[in-house]
Design a protein that fits this description.
This protein is mainly alpha-helical and 258 residues long. Helices cover 62% and strands 3% of the residues. It contains 13 helices and four strands. The strands form two sheets. A two-stranded antiparallel ribbon has the order 1-2. It has a two-stranded antiparallel sheet with strand order 3-4. A hairpin with a 6-residue loop joins strand 3 and strand 4. Helix 1 runs antiparallel to helix 2, helix 6 packs across helix 7 and helix 11 crosses helix 13. It is globular, with a radius of gyration of 22 Å. The protein starts with a strand and ends with a helix.
């Protein structure tokens, strides 16, 4: 009843593979079993569908995105390392996203020089490689060191290939408050920043716990992103976002009382 066809595939009938079965298939694939590879691809097409949903607002044909996502899936299947204690989906999703983003960049009407694109693609490949190797998102400095390219060149190249997006586009949601693009950047004109910079706020800061004070100081006095704060104090970005919102709420409350 819920049949939707993409590239001739009936999405309502797509199979689902469990992790144990996938690892068995991956072992067979690495021994040259093409039938196992086909089964692995079919069993993960739902994963491709879930990924391309986040690109629905780009004005691209779903069929095109699906085909490009399948290329990313096949690359993930061919390059997956069974010796690593990582779920296949954890490895495959960034590969699928990366393939789709490369497709969107190559078809972007805003032209970017070949040299900048080359640097950007090398940086993205190195980022994925380092993230997979260390199970942690690498910093720009680490990527620059790995490529032996100045950090500023990496930043400039990555900025050049980015598509414009809304500041209120959600980046992550774990069932609680979503993290928006706006949460990732600092803004000198932001109302919360102006509050914290005010003299009267210093009194309100004394009513916060030490962790809340630290997060607000790093975010608004030092201009760090939530990801940088999370790395610094050893918690997730989602936790930083929740603590930041709670701290600002407490701060406003104390300001109203005073």
């Amino acid at each position: 009843m819920n049949k939707v066809e993409i590239c001739g595939v009936n999405t309502a009938e797509l199979p689902v593979l469990h992790n144990k079965k996938m690892r068995k298939l991956l072992a067979q694939i690495q021994n040259g079993d093409t039938a196992a590879r086909d089964e692995m691809v079919q069993g993960n097409l739902r994963l491709v569908l879930s990924v391309i949903q986040r690109f629905n607002n780009r004005g691209e044909y779903v069929d095109d995105l699906f085909q490009v996502g399948c290329i990313g899936l096949m690359k993930a299947i061919d390059n997956f390392d069974l010796s690593q204690n990582v779920k296949f989906s954890t490895y495959a999703v960034p590969m699928i996203i990366g393939e789709i983003r490369r497709y969107l960049r190559d078809n972007n009407p805003i032209r970017v020089s070949r040299s900048l694109r080359d640097i950007a693609y090398k940086a993205l490949q190195t980022r994925d490689s380092l993230a997979y190797k260390y199970s942690k998102e690498p910093s720009i400095s680490q990527i620059a060191e790995e490529l032996k390219i100045p950090r500023e060149d990496i930043v400039f190249a990555l900025d050049a290939i980015q598509d414009p997006i809304s500041l209120f586009e959600p980046l992550y949601n774990d069932g609680g408050d979503p993290i928006f693009v706006l949460d990732q950047i600092s803004d000198d004109k932001n109302t919360d920043t102006q509050l914290i910079e005010g003299v009267s706020i210093k009194e309100g800061m004394t009513h916060l716990c030490s962790r809340e004070r630290m997060i607000l100081t790093m975010r608004f006095y030092e201009g760090r992103t939530q990801m940088e704060v999370a790395d610094e104090i050893g918690i997730s970005q989602a936790q930083v976002s929740r603590l930041e919102k709670a701290a600002l709420k407490h701060l406003r409350k104390h300001m109203a009382i005073s």
